[in-house]
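Is this the right way to post structure tokens for a design question? Let me know if I should format differently. Anyway, here goes:
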């Protein structure tokens, strides 16, 4: 068994009756394969800004699913939905990469913006984006 310091995602896939297939097989070879995610290399990197405004938290940036972000930020801050506004700026491409990861970034920057009571902006360069996603 291999152990790592940090595991972000672990997916296992099975189809059919695995125990039956193994029991009926002439030979069983068990190996472990690890693969990384493909990089979607959308046009602009992950980037957004969060800022408190009139008792609400505003977030704008490049994203595919603003409602995912609204839900995540509301939970992270303990705010009612009405107290969080998400503005989707022009997104030049996402291919799925601007679907889930922006929720993580939005939670990080909104917590920082709430604590500092000032705008917090993060725009990754390409390398930082690939490391983040």
């Amino acid at each position: 068994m291999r152990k790592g310091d940090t595991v972000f995602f672990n997916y296992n896939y099975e189809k059919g009756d695995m125990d039956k297939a193994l029991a009926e097989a002439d030979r069983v070879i068990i190996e472990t394969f690890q693969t990384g995610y493909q990089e979607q290399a959308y046009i602009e990197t992950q980037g957004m800004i969060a800022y408190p405004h009139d008792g609400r938290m505003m977030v704008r940036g490049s994203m595919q699913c603003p409602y995912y972000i609204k839900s995540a930020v509301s939970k992270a801050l303990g705010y009612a939905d009405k107290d969080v506004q998400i503005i989707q700026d022009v997104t030049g491409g996402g291919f799925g990469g601007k679907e889930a990861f922006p929720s993580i970034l939005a939670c990080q920057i909104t917590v920082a913006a709430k604590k500092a009571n000032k705008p917090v902006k993060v725009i990754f360069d390409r390398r930082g984006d690939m490391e983040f996603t």
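Format looks fine. Someone answered above. Worth noting: Strands lie at 47-53, 56-61, 84-88, 120-123. The longest strand covers residues 47-53.
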